[in-house]
Write a structure and sequence with these properties.
This protein has three helices and no strands. It is mainly α.
Length: 111
């Protein structure tokens, strides 16, 4: 079993956790840092959504390849990829729910 993809996913999760905590990871791409030295929320959000989308598309392609009987198609890899895509989508939905809840809490604060 190829664990390099799992290591890559763990590295992404660690980078996301460090980013959420406001701690830059050594060797991490600084494309999400704005001119003021802070983290640009919109670019972080967009890159996260792009990663979820790519994960979904990759899982769908692996499943399609297996269904069509493509040479080299692996059921195990397709199923693991589909589960990773599902988990990343569920995580994204939960983050969205927390953001909406925080927005509603801020909007309901007395001025």
């Amino acid at each position: 079993m190829d664990v390099s993809k799992i290591d890559g996913m763990l590295a992404q999760l660690r980078a996301g956790a460090a980013l959420a905590a406001g701690k830059p990871m050594p060797g991490a791409a600084s494309s999400n840092v704005n001119a003021g030295g802070g983290i640009d929320f919109s670019s972080v959000l967009k890159s996260s959504l792009d990663q979820v989308n790519n994960s979904q598309q990759h899982a769908a392609q692996l499943a399609r390849d297996f269904e069509m009987g493509a040479p080299g198609a692996n059921l195990t890899e397709a199923m693991i990829s589909m589960q990773k895509a599902t988990i990343s989508l569920q995580y994204t939905v939960q983050v969205r729910n927390k953001m909406v809840s925080a927005y509603q809490d801020i909007m309901n604060m007395p001025v």
